[in-house]
């Protein structure tokens, strides 16, 4: 357990350093590159025994045959077609060594996430800190297919904010070829659609959440897991295995604290919840899905997709231009309290469920 806290302490010291120098976009770029390289080395060269899902991805990759076409995939395989094709491409045309595939996928996931946090965040160090404390840095590497889908989905954000809906739609379809949960990102289209009022958008989120995730939970689970039997087990796991209910409660509490912070800061800024603030609607969607994940923990897949947007939104709110010193001080204090809560959240998770990360004892691939 002590290794996780040493990792956090080192990371936190680095964050404090960048918090003091991260004043320009150029220095923010240095911050993003620094954390990308650091975590890339940690994850890209890890042993197949490191991180809880890596052994099954290692087994799946090493059983591939060179005779299979790079565009060949099995519909009976639980893994999505896009992921299978990527496996065959690397295995047949580049190398059959798992470390090469690991380097390739880690670069895609961390590269896209780091670029997104740098490009769209007004405070890079805070976005990366939340990225770490929410464990998203671990979850996206653990669930490789989900991580790749998220990486592709984030690249589509530039089309979304420019109202290029067809391009965004195509990017999300591509992302769903790596993990079916990415299709949930299509709900962002009505979220940013300028002709809909904020009240309509909120009602739409409530109706869709109830319909898709509460009335038909087994159907959604089966779709997200590509398997009837596996999907039913996912849908009922909160009942069968009480431990899985914990992750839903954990996500909901974190989401609730995030949204309370957002409401408090926006109140200090005297900003109304306008239609031009899609990230606020996304934060409400995040809260809704987190709450529903208590009943069906498969929805943590959707929570993982939404978390990067919360990271940049909170960082942007923290850096909002406020001239009144008292309000600026209150926002800083609220942000420090949020960070303290997230540190406690990270500590609680690593104490109670270290096996869900399984980063330590660490081992490089070359020692495997």
Structure description:
The protein is mainly α and 368 residues long. Helices cover 72% and strands 0% of the residues. It has 18 helices and no strands. The chain has helices at 2-21, 25-44, 54-62, 81-93, 98-120, 124-133, 136-142, 144-155, 157-161, 165-176, 188-192, 198-215, 217-225, 228-240, 243-268, 278-292, 300-318, 325-352. Helix 1 packs antiparallel against helix 6 (124-133). The protein is globular. It starts with a helix and ends in a 16-residue tail after the last helix. Residues 227-232 and 237-244 have low confidence and may be disordered.
Please describe the structure with a list of short key phrases separated by commas or semicolons.
72% helix; 368 residues; single chain
Overall strand count: 0
Helix content: over 70%
Strand percent estimate? under 5%
**Overall pLDDT metric:** 82
